[in-house]
Design a protein that fits this description.
Layout: H1 3-10, E1 16-21, H2 31-43, E2 50-55, H3 64-79
Parallel strand pairs: 1-2
Helix pairs in contact: 2-3
């Protein structure tokens, strides 16, 4: 489901789980690109119900350093809301 559909029709009824893709972002993008992607995705729900985590299981191409970077940034962004 797109974020637009969620925000328009369902944000008052349920939460989104996910948001940071393991198959296209973590472990694939450079740190600068990953930071931009996380900031972009993090801003989409606009404070609505959202549990920010990885989509898909963490895979071999994801280093612990990349995961730590991603979740440290997510934690920081969550505290700024």
């Amino acid at each position: 489901m797109s974020y637009d559909t969620y925000l328009e029709k369902y944000a008052d009824r349920f939460a989104i789980l996910g948001g940071v893709c393991v198959q296209s972002a973590i472990g694939i993008l450079s740190r600068a690109e990953l930071e931009r992607e996380i900031c972009r995705v993090f801003g989409l729900p606009g404070g609505k119900r959202w549990i920010c985590c990885t989509t898909h299981f963490v895979q071999n191409h994801c280093s612990m350093e990349d995961l730590k970077f991603a979740f440290d940034l997510i934690y920081k962004l969550a505290r700024e809301i």
